[in-house]
Amino acid sequence: MAEPRETIVVGAGVIGAACALQLQRDGHQVRLIDRDPPGAGTSSGNAGSISTGSVVPVALPGMLRQVPGWLLDPQGPLSVRWAYLPKALPWLLQWIRASKTERAESYAAALARLTLNAVEDWTSILEAEQRERLIHQKGQLLVSRTQEAGKTELFAQALRDANGVASETVDEDALRQLEPGLSRDFKRGLFIPDSGHTTNPQALTEALVALLQAAGGQFTRAEVLEVDQSGGQAQAVVTAGGRFPAAKVVVATGAFSLDLARPLGDRVPLDTERGYHAMALKPELALNRPTSDMDRKFFATSMEEGLRVAGTVEIAGTKAPPDYSRARRLLRQAKEMLPDLDTSEHRFWMGYRPSLPDSLPVIDRARNVQNVWYAFGHGHLGLTMAPATAQQIVRMLRAPGGRLDDNDFRIDRF
Ligand SMILES: Cc1cc2nc3c(=O)[nH]c(=O)nc-3n(C[C@H](O)[C@H](O)[C@H](O)COP(=O)(O)OP(=O)(O)OC[C@H]3O[C@@H](n4cnc5c(N)ncnc54)[C@H](O)[C@@H]3O)c2cc1C
Fold first, then answer.
1. Does ligand 1 have an atom closer than 6 angstroms to the CB of 219?
2. Per-residue pLDDT tens over the stretch 148-196
3. What GO molecular function annotations does the UniProt record carry, in alphabetical order (predicted)?
């Protein structure tokens, strides 16, 4: 007797887990496959910010002029491993193109579609128990030592305003009221009231997988080797532990997605912006909300396990070993941001942001295979965009031909 055919989602990071759950709820029989436990990869180590209305793409006009300074500054937020530069060059060139004003404006409008209701999207995908433990809505605070906003910051604010993102400027006194632990060096801030956060990103993905299993879906731990297709139809997902016949396949393997997409004939400039975190395990102080040092470009968030400071971009691909001096520097910078922070007990981590140069993900059907879809490339905002991405995948799998007419996240946009 032929085995039943399932909808298989590959990758149990926050994106794949959200897609798997929403597809199971939409009537599919889902199997989620990952080589690691759910949410253990990049989705475990992020800053936890559910950044409602995070519409500002990474590449912005005028930024190119700042890049050499960042690269030369050992305290800077960006580094490139020179041995990786030839590989990264096409991505970096597209990133420069993406920083043009009109492009940044159009990417912001697209980001708004996946981020404007992020907290609501998260509360509606979860059930009460996990929602109460894991999702908090206390806004987000961006702080600076400078007296006035520079050009790039003003442009970012114009993008927020144009896309209907609520925000309030905050003076020095109001900063202290919002976050009493902040250093006196900070002179002003921006408060984004509708933003939220999670206090445990990995538990959040685990919660999605537990809901999937409770709804009748399955989780299988295995390395996926390929999606076997013939005649433009995926037949099965082949793993190190066996072959799973598939009616439909969703590839959501983050920074590793091209390993499966390339053999199916799809190429996009996906690379990784590696990021680090340092976790102060006995911080002796707490922040009320994710707080970002705008000058040094990192976030600090109080979590169940301690206070996490996360950020930096390292262009070095998926194979080079971590450079934990970047995490050590984050810890020092956190201490400067929050002078009473106890950093004596800490832990370091590195993860792989799956990034496309225009800061938008790919959410689309494979070009040449009728029953394979992609959900990858969420860069700096995967936690924020996961529920909206899952909704888009559900709509696509229902749509005639498996595609949506009005799709900003097409695979053939490059
Ligand atoms: C320092 C840092 C801070 C961040 N802060 C935030 C934040 O505050 N807010 C926010 O919204 N986003 C943030 N992000 C971004 C966010 O974490 C990512 O966009 C998101 O985790 C990507 O999720 P994913 O499911 O696509 O990828 P992943 O979490 O990497 O999941 C992919 C999964 O695929 C699996 N996989 C890969 N290949 C295979 C294979 N062949 N077979 C089987 N399994 C496979 C992996 O094991 C992994 O579990 C941050 C990222 C970093 C690095």
1. no
2. 999 999 999 999 999 999 999 999 999 999 999 999 999 999 999 999 9
3. oxidoreductase activity
